[in-house]
Amino acid sequence: MKNKTIFGLERNIFYTGVTSFFTDTSVKMIYSVMPLFLMSIGASKTAISLIEGIAESTASVLKAISGIWSDRIGRNKPFMIIGYGLTAITTPMYAWAWLPLQVLLIRFAERVGKGLRTAPRDSLISGSIKEHQTGRNFGFHKAMDNSGAILGPLMAFLLLYFYPHKYSLIFILATIPAILGVITIFLFIKEAKAASNNQKTPFKLSQLPRKFYFFLLVVFLFTMGNSADALLLVKTTETGVNQSYIPFIYMLFNMVSVFLAVPIGKLSDRIGREKLILAGFLTYAAVYFFFGYFNNIYIFIFLFMVYGIYSALADTGQKAIVSDIVGKKMKGTGYGLYHAVMGITLLPASLIAGLLYDRVNSNAPFYFGAAMALSAALLMLIFMWVYSKNNTSKKNYTKV
After folding, report:
1. How much is the pLDDT for 394?
2. Which CATH number fits the domain that encloses residue 358?
3. Which of 7, 41, 199, 329 has the fewest CB atoms nearer than 10 Å to its CB?
4. pLDDT for residue 195 is more than 50
5. 160-191, pLDDT tens digit by residue?
6. How many domains does the chain have?
7. Range of the domain at 184
8. For residue 191, what pLDDT is reported?
9. 239: DSSP letter
10. Helices (H), the chain
């Protein structure tokens, strides 16, 4: 199949970015107001954290399963259609929820969709990439993803500003871009898998390199302190700011990330992923420390913008390095395990953060997050030292 490029990008990569743009517009419209909505129906800080942690962690198992399964059958698109479709179906259901438990069930169903689609989607992107452009293409996808994450909170801000506390209106309107994302997959995205990997022998963990598991250990340690962004939004409400501005402040975080995603992706192609991931961990540690130390809306606005720098550095770099490390026939499996480790770890991370917020004080979870990020940065330095001779140069990335 001859692939025509769009703006210098392979068609699959461009339209996968469009799909993520529409879907993230929908998801972030909801996410930017979800802490406010949950507090309005009586949820505690621990409950807010657990809703995010349980949904992400339980559904994350599907990320590993869908990644391995897509490698076996040689297809990604069916998982993407079902996964993005679930998001479109569940989105309007929030409008009829009046209990935190109902929100948990809907959130869980939506995250099942994310679990089904994420690893196959990343595998499809990786399978569509030309050599030497891994960071650039994942940077583009991150930029499109975060472009939706700008538009979604902006729309939520305007709706809350003119229609205060009308959360059901936001949930209904958020369904429209979610449906457009599914339509994009049907019409424009083609399969990019190699031949199916229908092995008679079962999958063995030894098929993936040791370097990959070392990197997963780094991800695990960092994620233990990477609780849901919802607590950042909750802490911001405690400064006394008008609640309608919370989605707008969250939008600033995504705006910085989208502007930096592509140039940082290109930079990672030149200087290596590890350095940028390390910088991202250190940035995260600084942001969380100052969120714990201060309680000032202007400082928090600045910190949300710096938080966008962390997102561009770490998120893009981590996905690209997984593509670099795992073999071509194991990309779905590699991404599945990567996302599963992050998702499963979010449950204890969210529980710890929520309990620290409710039982100690509002500063404690952020100090804990900063400490875990610094620990992960130290482990990342060890990772870089161990593999510096063979795997950190640009030329070695292109061998995958």
Report:
1. 41
2. 1.20.1250.20
3. 7
4. no
5. 999 999 999 999 999 999 999 999 999 999 88
6. 1
7. 10-192+207-397
8. 80
9. T
10. 11-31, 34-40, 45-73, 77-90, 100-128, 134-162, 167-173, 175-188, 210-223, 230-237, 246-271, 273-293, 297-325, 331-355, 364-386, 388-391, 394-397
